């Protein structure tokens, strides 16, 4: 969106604003506002369980240098203040190796904490790839585990193993299945009286240097007695699904980083990343033995949920409520497409999860910053998420109002009056003073962490391109909403120094039908998003994104001119002195 008033921008990097410890009323969604878990070396998958003594125990895949370094190992930390501070790390597996990676923890009713991970038992130093070999040996070997009986302060001296049954994809790998390629990002789930650990098998690697997975599919190991058995060597395991084929992708050969939850009837629901640009999903109604045909996870309106080749996790929040972490764009490669983070709220209905339109949960000022491999922590009625940039891991409290809005989207119908600046039904043509769009720049600051504003309007049916509404002076400063290309809406923002613009998805305006259109200008992540008829635009099939970034130097678009409307096209317009949440925009549509 940067400096392109008439066409959509490419998502180019913006300069990162410096950290400002004096910033007033900080935005809790900002990545740097989280509490640091680890900020040295490499750190991945910061996953938390709550110990029997109420401390948080976090296990991290760590190394002295980078991902895949020979020093890669598992460490743990404890926190007694909800993640604000952490103890010094304790090695679960030593740095001397061989590599131990991708740890997922589980706490059982006795208070024992287990940690499961990929262990390079054979101490291989390279792996065969399609074009030669790779030194990355951290995604192969056995599923090992250790345990702690003192709330994560120390770990068992003996290492145990989970037997993994081979599938066709294993027998087709370069070692014929004698070496298993696999890893797990899914924290174990207790469903009924069983424990399930989801993981991903790899058929081969396509690049010599990095060893990117060429083919992959999901599997699950289930234990019927780990919740009650005190002897680790007597714990039993079953590899699922039945047969020789795992959970595959709806499109393409990539189905990986599986995460499952249990539903209220004991069924299982699993999400995973694909290379198709969408979240993969499947259900099992027989405790993981068989699964429904692979599909994409879908919003309640049936649209598939977009996600690049990045971790996408489902979490059980109790009371038939769920959360889904994703990135709301359909780029199909790894890249820098993991900022911001979006959350959708799920409600279980008739054995399926209906997903809400998403909200921005976390962002970094620099669009090139990525965050991933999260965990959800529930302590009482409060929720936190962890995440990592691979060099620093943090934990963040989630806003209860945001979560409530996600879970109530299907039923809430009301028009917000909080921070309402203008209503065409009552305000006439009075000028509207809008807040500046930056948290801080130079020597001035604003007092509202949720910088930005919202324009909410009902558009009558029409097919002629025209200005719908504007507040703009003779020099062009201000904002304009214009119907373009017959069925789209274009927003222009001008602060007298620069002009930005963003255009809605095709088909926003339909001839013969009224349209509810909400433009949300969010000065935190510097993002413009549109909600049309209760649906957050995501680009559909026409583009990877439905939201756009504006220039971080864009400031004040207020003018002394009045708001002007096209009376033939705009039935009602409201303006707010803050960015509404997506859930509030959806509720306004439902209110009619």
- Helix tally? 3
- Helix fraction, binned, reads under 10%
Uncertain segments are: 1-24, 439-449
Oligomeric grouping of the chains: single chain
Number of strands: 42
Mean of residue pLDDT? 91
Strand content: 35-45%
User: Which structural class fits the helix and strand makeup?
Assistant: mainly beta
Shape: elongated
CA-atom Rg in angstroms: 25 Å
Straight-line distance between termini: 31 Å
Word description of this protein:
- With 592 residues, this protein is mainly beta.
- It has three helices and 42 strands.
- β2 (42-50) and β3 (56-63) form a beta hairpin.
- The longest helix has 10 residues, at 582-591.
- The two termini are 31 Å apart.
What would you say about this model in short?
With 592 residues, the protein is mainly beta. Strands 29, 32, 37, 38, 39, 40 and 42 form a seven-stranded antiparallel beta sheet that branches. Strands 12, 13, 14, 15 and 16 form a five-stranded antiparallel beta sheet that branches. Strands 21, 22, 23, 24 and 25 form a five-stranded antiparallel beta sheet that branches.
């Amino acid at each position: 969106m940067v400096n392109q008033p008439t066409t959509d921008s490419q998502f180019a990097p913006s300069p990162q604003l410096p950290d400002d410890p004096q910033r007033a009323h900080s935005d809790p969604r900002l990545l740097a506002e989280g509490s640091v878990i680890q900020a040295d070396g490499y750190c991945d998958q910061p996953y938390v369980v709550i110990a029997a003594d109420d401390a948080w125990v976090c296990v991290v895949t760590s190394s002295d240098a980078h991902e895949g370094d020979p020093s890669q190992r598992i460490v743990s930390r404890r926190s007694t203040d909800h993640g604000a501070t952490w103890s010094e790390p304790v090695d679960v597996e030593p740095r001397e190796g061989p590599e131990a990676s991708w740890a997922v923890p589980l706490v059982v009713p006795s208070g024992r904490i287990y940690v499961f991970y990929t262990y390079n038992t054979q101490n291989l130093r390279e792996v065969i790839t399609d074009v030669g070999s790779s030194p990355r040996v951290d995604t192969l070997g056995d599923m090992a585990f250790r345990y702690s009986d003192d709330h994560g302060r120390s770990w068992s001296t003996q290492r145990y193993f989970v037997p993994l049954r081979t599938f066709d994809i294993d027998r087709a790998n370069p070692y014929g299945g004698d070496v298993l390629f696999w890893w797990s990002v899914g924290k174990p789930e207790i469903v009924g009286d069983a424990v399930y650990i989801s993981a991903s098998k790899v058929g081969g690697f396509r690049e010599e240097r990095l060893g990117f997975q060429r083919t992959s599919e999901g599997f699950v190991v289930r234990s019927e007695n780990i919740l009650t058995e005190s002897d680790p060597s007597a714990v039993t395991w079953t590899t699922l699904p039945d047969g020789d084929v795992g959970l595959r992708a709806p499109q393409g050969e990539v189905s990986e980083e599986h995460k499952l939850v249990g539903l209220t009837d004991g069924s299982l629901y699993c999400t995973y990343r694909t290379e198709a640009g969408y979240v993969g999903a499947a259900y099992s109604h027989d405790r993981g033995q068989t699964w429904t045909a692979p599909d994409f996870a879908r919003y309640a309106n049936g649209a598939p949920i977009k996600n690049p080749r990045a971790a996408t996790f489902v979490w059980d929040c109790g009371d038939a409520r769920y959360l889904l972490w994703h990135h709301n764009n359909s780029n199909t490669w790894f890249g820098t497409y993991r900022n911001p983070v979006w959350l959708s709220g799920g409600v279980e209905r008739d054995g399926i999860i209906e997903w809400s339109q998403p909200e921005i949960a976390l962002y970094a000022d620099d669009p090139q910053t990525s965050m991933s491999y999260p965990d959800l922590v529930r302590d009482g009625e409060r929720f936190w998420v962890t995440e990592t940039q691979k060099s620093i891991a943090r934990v963040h409290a989630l806003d209860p109002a945001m979560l409530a809005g996600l879970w109530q989207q299907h039923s809430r119908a009301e028009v917000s009056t909080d921070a309402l600046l203008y209503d065409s039904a009552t305000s006439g043509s009075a000028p509207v003073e809008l807040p500046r769009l930056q948290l801080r720049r130079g020597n001035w600051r604003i007092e509202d962490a949720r910088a930005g504003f919202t324009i909410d309007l009902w558009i009558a049916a029409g097919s002629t391109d025209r200005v719908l509404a504007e507040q703009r002076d003779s020099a062009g400063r201000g904002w304009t909403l214009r119907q373009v290309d017959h069925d789209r809406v274009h927003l222009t923002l001008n602060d007298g120094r620069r002009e930005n613009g963003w255009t809605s998805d095709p088909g926003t305006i339909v001839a013969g039908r009224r349209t509810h259109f909400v433009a949300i200008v969010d000065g935190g992540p510097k993002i413009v998003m549109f909600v049309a008829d209760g649906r957050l635009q995501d680009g559909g099939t026409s583009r990877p994104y439905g939201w756009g970034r504006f220039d971080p130097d864009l400031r004040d678009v207020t003018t002394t001119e009045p708001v002007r409307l096209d009376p033939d096209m705009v039935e009602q317009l409201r303006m707010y002195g803050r960015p509404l949440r997506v859930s509030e925009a959806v509720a306004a549509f439902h209110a009619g």
